[in-house]
């Protein structure tokens, strides 16, 4: 994962060289500027709160990141466009390994165990940027179709259509005017 240079971006990088066996803790509380940038990136109205607590510990030659993401977001209701607030509390559990395990040659068979947990992420160098992990966890927890309390599709007023609109309907009004002479 690449480190973002933007000042408004979250900085969730952790050095893993000389990582103690109990791991390193990372606590992150996004400031107003970071929350605004994140809301824009996720195309939601606002991120009111974002707190993340992570622990990165050595695991099979890489690291395992365990933690929790707590957030409050606001986005428009899909029916009424009224603001809807959603509280998010998501666990985080991800494995990062150095480099790519092994490159597969074209035409070679690749076996995937669908019963196995998620595939690990990879990193290069002595530092791992966990920013994309945080953004991904938040974006997957967001309700894609938020509804305000009591909002229903039946509440949407519909205009009755006497007849379907056709490309010739405007010509019909011209013809009717011409018949009056």
Automatic annotation (TrEMBL):
Taxonomic superkingdom: Bacteria
InterPro entries the record matches: YceD
Pfam hit, one: YceD
Protein name as catalogued: DUF177 domain-containing protein
